[in-house]
């Protein structure tokens, strides 16, 4: 019926969501993941060994859901990448009620900026927070961590609707790349600072060399 039809503005919002949330952010996340692995070769080889163990002699087949669940180390590498370089560095929220914070009252209706980039580099939560350490996401090391200490997809009822899909997508692409290529980089992890735009991007692009692995 006419009442069920979306207005033009609503349709435009939906298109923007699919294009921005589902493309730019995932591409940026993958670029950062490759960068982190290229600048941490031992971690890269551990991830590649895990991937090789899952696919064994059939490296050309497509990844299944069971395959993705069988790569916990790669999953931790992705999580650690998004901790250091969350694709969306700032999220905005409009308060629905008065909110007490640090001895101050934020009134209902104001818009607050939340910075995952800063939250994820809190030394009180993440020891040696500037290092790339996928094992900080082992269950025994993250069990006491507050849920809001790690929010690459935002949090609450308005978090990223596509976060599960994005996580699967990154694992599919990275597992495909690691089966076939080894990444090298002559720079260090933080030699390529992030540009704080709507999507967090590496200032100098993803400057790496790729060498084909023996399948």
From TrEMBL:
Q: Which PROSITE patterns match?
A: CYTOCHROME_P450 (PS00086)
Q: Which domain of life is it from?
A: Eukaryota
Q: Which GO terms describe its molecular function?
A: heme binding; iron ion binding; monooxygenase activity; oxidoreductase activity, acting on paired donors, with incorporation or reduction of molecular oxygen
Q: Which Gene3D superfamilies match?
A: Cytochrome P450
Q: Which keywords label this protein?
A: Heme, Iron, Metal-binding, Monooxygenase, Oxidoreductase
InterPro entries in the record, alphabetically? Cyt_P450, Cyt_P450_CS, Cyt_P450_E_grp-I, Cyt_P450_sf, Cytochrome_P450_Monoox
Q: Which cofactor does it need?
A: heme
Q: Where does heme bind?
A: 160
Assigned protein family: Belongs to the cytochrome P450 family.
Q: What is this protein called?
A: Cytochrome P450
């Amino acid at each position: 019926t006419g009442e069920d039809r979306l207005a033009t503005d609503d349709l435009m919002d939906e298109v923007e969501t699919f294009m921005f949330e589902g493309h730019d952010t995932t591409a940026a996340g993958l670029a950062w993941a490759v960068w982190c692995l290229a600048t941490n070769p031992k971690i890269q080889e551990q991830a590649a060994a895990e991937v090789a163990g899952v696919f064994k002699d059939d490296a050309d087949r497509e990844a299944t859901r069971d395959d993705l669940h069988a790569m916990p180390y790669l999953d931790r590498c992705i999580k650690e990448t998004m901790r250091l370089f969350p694709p969306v560095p700032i999220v905005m929220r409009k308060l629905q009620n008065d909110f007490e914070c640090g001895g101050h009252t934020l009134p209902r209706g104001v818009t607050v900026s939340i910075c995952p980039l800063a939250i994820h580099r809190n030394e009180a939560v993440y020891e040696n927070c500037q290092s790339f350490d996928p094992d900080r996401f082992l269950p025994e090391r993250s069990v006491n961590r507050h849920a809001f200490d790690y929010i690459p997809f935002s949090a609450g009822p308005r978090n990223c609707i596509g976060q599960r899909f994005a996580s699967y997508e990154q694992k599919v692409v990275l597992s495909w790349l690691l089966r076939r290529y080894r990444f090298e980089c002559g720079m260090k992890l933080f030699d390529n600072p992030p540009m704080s735009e709507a999507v967090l991007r590496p200032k100098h692009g993803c400057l790496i060399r790729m060498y084909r692995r023996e399948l």
